[in-house]
Write a structure and sequence with these properties.
Length: 33
């Protein structure tokens, strides 16, 4: 069984955070236009 390392967790969290930031940026652009 594969054990998830702290590094892997941090990496996936960063990916999710980047996606959230992108969605927010896209959303604010939509509101502005």
């Amino acid at each position: 069984m594969h054990k998830v390392t702290v590094q892997e967790l941090a990496g996936s969290e960063r990916d999710v955070w980047d996606e959230v930031q992108q969605l927010r940026a896209n959303g604010s652009k939509g509101y502005d236009s």
